[in-house]
């Protein structure tokens, strides 16, 4: 099998060769007083219409920074993007001038955030915040914008939308606020929706409601969804394919069924093994030893080597490329064969 | 871990209402948040009781009541037969030695200006009889070792540790007075996924070593299942179902428990299209103005007239082997968490 440093899963065919959204060899750095933090180190992934890509990773893995780079909402400086491309329908967004970029942002590529309370403005009514999308991007009048806002609140199933359009964010529960965020993000029928931990702050029963809503909206409009999360359960429920991130890199790329059946990277395997399972009751849980890497002092070679049970000498010195290990799979581990065999056994 | 003998913690009809006041000069009470409204259970030595429920169901208020950090409106909490809810002064201090707490957020529950040694050793300042002054440093170092930290790091500050290590410091502080009961309020939910298993293993090892009883409050149902001997499910200030872990997870009888379990995403994509899922409509009602009768009836698909008129008690019902608070309790295997 051939070695390659950038692996893109095959396109679904709807757009020919070019996927709807393609991130290619993206690097993001932050200049801090302690030095340059390499938050994203050569990340590549792609998304097709109607598809759900889950980006899985822990805090500091670079999953949210990648999303912010796609949206163009990084503060630059301190951030900078020394290399890489973000192609939307074949156009590199990173090279676009700001006015063209803002035509894409929110209209064609939209985003929802984890914490809906701090993402909404507390001093404006939810109706005016949803309607703002139409006033700014479509030049709608206040009255039309409000009418549209009510329609959208109905669409995300907020009960009594007509009465509640004049309420403020604090008058809604956490789940309803997340629905308002979703209403704003789908207002202009985007082709790509990036959801950054959309349900992390919510209870499980509300989480189930929100995930169901997102799936329905996706079916209606065939948009591509990038779901950023650390929850292996949510991923298994909704994703078509997965990119696992660790220390600013993608360490494994696969279709959802493949990765849960047999992970090909020791980190993915460790995460799956540490989920408490019914038959392990009373036994010690498998735990990945050590702790996530410090981005200011990344380990040499493979960033996962200090915690890895498959480590050999060359892992300390030689960073593994993202090996293509199948038509829809890749793994950044020198010993992916052993990991894969161990997963089957 | 098998629980044996007499209960060391007995909770009976525990109620906590927070008054809602209006007016600045002429303050008058206009209502009350019924955070905990009649909760009863026992905890035996060496046992883990998991408490699950969604935000606002009163599980954290319950933890504070057990620790006597809040005074109950009514009801009783007994530790080894001694009442803690009404205890004052020296009596309260003595009872409290036996029940300690591990907090949710290891970033805000440790004082950033104190060294680790001072944080873990602070309980000895209050309970000087446990460790004489000259002996404290050694005791703290022993505790650091017990929770898997380097004893030489006794003079470091919290910011020099990672989240998982800070939670270990919090656990060491909880162990300092050799309590019999530890209340863990969401002890792993602020930690990274790869670190959670480490802390859960540590808690289980300590339980075996010191014969601890845990009240384990969490919203992650698979973690609760792994660590608990018994599980209580709370909804809007009430315990709606209480039983052995296998009974709650494999044969839940209360509709809310069934909905809660079915909502948990299963980390296995195979068969996800066929999975049965009960999606509750709307949000939980306000605890200031809970529905009459059964509090879950406004979101329940089984609700009938009797549910609005008569409050179902937490008791063993026909066809089930554990207590549930539903007029129409019926076991139903939903999903395997």
Provide a descriptive summary of the structure in words:
The complex is a heterodimer of chains A (345) and B (337). In chain A, strand 11 and strand 12 form a beta hairpin. The longest helix of chain A is centred in the middle third of the chain and has 18 residues. With 345 residues, chain A is α/β, with parallel strands linked by helices. The N terminus of chain A is likely disordered. Chain A contains 13 helices and 12 strands. Chain A has a single domain, classed as 3-Layer(aba) Sandwich (Rossmann fold). In chain A, the strands form 2 sheets. Chain A has an 8-stranded mixed beta sheet with strand order 6-7-8-3-9-10-12-11, with helices on both faces. Chain A is 34% helix and 22% strand. Chain B is α/β, with parallel strands linked by helices and 337 residues long. Chain B has a domain of 193 residues: Rossmann fold (3-Layer(aba) Sandwich). Chain B is built from 10 helices and 12 strands. An 8-stranded mixed beta sheet of chain B has the order 6-7-8-3-9-10-12-11, sandwiched between helices. Chain B has a 4-stranded antiparallel beta sheet with strand order 2-1-4-5, with helices on one face. In chain B, helix 3 runs parallel beside helix 5, helix 4 packs across helix 5 and helix 5 packs parallel to helix 6. The longest helix of chain B has 18 residues. The two termini of chain B are 20 Å apart. The model of chain B has no long low-confidence stretch (mean pLDDT 88).
């Amino acid at each position: 099998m051939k070695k390659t440093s950038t692996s893109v899963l095959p396109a679904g065919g709807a757009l020919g060769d070019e996927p709807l959204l393609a991130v290619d060899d993206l690097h993001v750095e932050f200049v801090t007083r302690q030095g340059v933090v390499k938050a994203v180190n050569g990340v590549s992934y792609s998304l097709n219409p109607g598809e759900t890509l889950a980006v899985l990773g822990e805090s500091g893995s670079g999953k949210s920074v990648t999303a912010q780079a796609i949206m163009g909402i990084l503060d630059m400086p301190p951030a900078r993007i020394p290399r890489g491309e973000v192609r939307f329908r074949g156009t590199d967004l990173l090279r676009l001038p700001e006015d063209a970029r803002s035509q894409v942002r929110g209209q064609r590529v939209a985003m929802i955030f984890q914490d809906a309370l701090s993402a909404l403005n507390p001093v404006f009514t939810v109706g005016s915040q949803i309607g703002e999308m139409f006033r700014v991007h479509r030049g709608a009048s206040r009255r039309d914008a409000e009418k549209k806002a009510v329609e959208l609140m109905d669409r995300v199933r907020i009960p009594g939308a007509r009465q509640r359009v004049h309420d403020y964010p604090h008058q809604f529960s956490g789940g309803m606020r997340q629905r308002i965020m979703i209403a704003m993000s789908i207002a202009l029928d985007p082709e790509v929706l990036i959801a950054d931990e959309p349900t992390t702050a919510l209870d499980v029963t509300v989480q189930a409601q929100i995930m169901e809503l997102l799936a329905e909206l996706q079916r209606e409009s065939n948009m591509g969804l990038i779901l950023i999360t650390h929850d292996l359960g949510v991923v298994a429920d909704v994703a078509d394919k997965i990119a696992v991130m660790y220390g600013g890199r993608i360490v494994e790329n696969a279709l959802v069924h493949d990765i849960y059946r047999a992970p090909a990277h020791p980190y993915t395997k460790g995460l799956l093994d540490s989920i408490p399972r019914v038959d392990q009751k009373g036994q010690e849980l498998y735990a990945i030893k050590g702790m996530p890497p410090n981005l200011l002092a990344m380990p040499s070679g493979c960033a996962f080597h200090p915690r890895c049970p498959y480590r050999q000498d060359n892992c300390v010195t030689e960073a593994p490329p993202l090996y293509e290990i199948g038509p829809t799979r890749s793994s950044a581990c020198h010993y992916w064969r052993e990991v894969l065999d161990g997963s089957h056994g | 871990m098998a629980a044996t003998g007499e209960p060391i913690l007995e909770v009976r009809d525990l109620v906590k209402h927070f008054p809602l006041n209006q007016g600045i000069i002429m303050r008058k009470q206009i209502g009350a948040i019924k955070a905990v409204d009649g909760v009863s259970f026992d905890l035996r030595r060496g046992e883990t009781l998991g408490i699950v429920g969604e935000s606002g169901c009163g599980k954290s208020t319950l933890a504070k009541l057990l620790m006597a950090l809040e005074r109950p409106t009514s009801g009783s909490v007994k530790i080894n037969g001694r009442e803690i809810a009404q205890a004052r002064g020296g009596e309260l201090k003595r009872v409290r030695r036996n029940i300690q707490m591990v907090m949710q957020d290891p970033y805000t529950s440790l004082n950033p200006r104190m060294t680790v040694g001072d944080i873990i050793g602070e309980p000895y300042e209050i309970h000087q009889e446990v460790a004489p002054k000259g002996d404290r440093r050694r005791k703290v170092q022993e505790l650091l070792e017990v929770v898997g930290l380097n004893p030489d790091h006794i003079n470091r500050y919290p910011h020099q540790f990672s989240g998982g290590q800070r939670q270990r410091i919090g656990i060491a502080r909880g162990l300092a007075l050799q309590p019999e009961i530890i209340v863990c309020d969401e002890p792993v939910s602020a930690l990274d996924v790869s670190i959670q298993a480490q802390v859960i293993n540590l808690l289980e090892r300590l339980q075996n070593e010191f014969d601890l009883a845990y009240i384990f409050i969490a919203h992650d149902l698979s973690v609760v299942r792994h660590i608990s001997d018994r599980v209580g499910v709370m909804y809007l200030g009430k315990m709606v179902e209480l039983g052995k872990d296998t009974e709650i997870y494999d044969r839940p009888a209360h509709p809310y428990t069934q909905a809660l379990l079915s909502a948990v995403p299963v980390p296995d994509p195979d068969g996800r299209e066929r999975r049965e899922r009960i999606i509750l409509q709307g949000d939980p009602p306000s605890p200031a103005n809970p529905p009459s009768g059964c509090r879950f009836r406004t979101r329940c698909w089984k609700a009938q007239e009797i549910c609005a008129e008569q409050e179902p008690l937490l008791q063993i019902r026909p066809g089930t082997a554990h207590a549930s608070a539903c007029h129409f309790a019926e076991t139903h295997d939903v999903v395997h968490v």
